[in-house]
Design brief:
The chain is mainly α. The protein is built from 9 helices and no strands. Helix 3 (40-63) runs antiparallel to helix 5, helix 3 packs parallel to helix 6 and helix 6 (119-145) packs across helix 7 (154-174). It is globular.
């Protein structure tokens, strides 16, 4: 597995497909902290949204690297399609780590915040960025490596899911019945609503965290099943 991850990482770097999303992500972070004395948690909430978008982009780019014939050769070499999918995901999370670390520590190094960091802020920040990165990987996988990966509409479908997940709170306020539909989209507001000016650990916080973890676990299983079903 480690050899496959190295192969995927080197292959993806050589393809240069990572350059547009990474450059846009870095520009987003630089612009976000162009001013000093910005609030901590809300700023990290914005950079979490950035990593959500970028990881979706990277996932779709990575799953589109191989032709069908090359993909089946990799299946045979790895011994299973599940190992292929895991290898892709491991590679994406390796790429996510430096992006997340840059988003977290750049404003600290440049002294951009209006207050000091605490252990609670660090934990919430890393959790938020990691969750949003996972959302991005799952959305990217869904529309580039499963039966829903219709080439003509893949990017449009991914953007639709991202927009609906980011706008879900406003949409529900406009039409309450939509809450029975929008739950299928990544629950970004269950996390980001705690990235306000004041961080409070209460019952609602833990309910939201548990719901997000369950959502990720179930969605991972569904996406993996859809991938394996497509590659039968």
């Amino acid at each position: 597995m480690s050899a496959f991850v190295r192969y995927e990482l080197l292959n993806f770097i050589r393809s240069l497909k990572f350059i547009p999303p990474v450059v846009i992500y870095l520009a987003w972070i630089f612009i976000l902290y162009a001013y000093k004395n910005v609030p901590i948690l809300s700023s990290y909430g914005v950079s979490s949204i950035a990593i959500y978008l970028v990881m979706t982009w990277l996932a779709m780019a990575m799953f589109s690297m191989e032709e069908e014939s090359e993909k089946h050769i990799l299946f045979a070499h790895l011994g299973s399609k599940w190992r292929y999918l895991r290898g892709k995901w491991h590679t994406l999370f390796l790429m996510m780590i430096p992006l997340m670390l840059f988003a977290v520590f750049f404003p600290i190094i440049t002294g951009s915040f209006n207050d000091g960091m605490t252990i609670e802020y660090y934990l919430l920040t890393f959790f938020c960025h990691t969750v949003f990165a996972i959302f991005g990987v799952l959305v990217g996988t869904l529309f580039s490596a499963t039966g829903l990966a219709v080439k003509k509409y893949a990017w449009l479908s991914a953007v639709f899911v991202i927009v609906c997940s980011l706008a879900s709170k406003s949409l529900i306020e406009m039409a309450a019945f939509l809450k029975w539909v929008l739950w299928i989209f990544p629950p970004v507001f269950n996390v980001i609503e705690h990235m306000g000016n004041e961080f409070i650990v209460n019952t609602d916080f833990w309910i939201n965290i548990i719901f997000v973890i369950i959502y990720i676990a179930l969605t991972t299983i569904i996406v993996a099943w859809l991938f394996l079903k497509k590659e039968r």
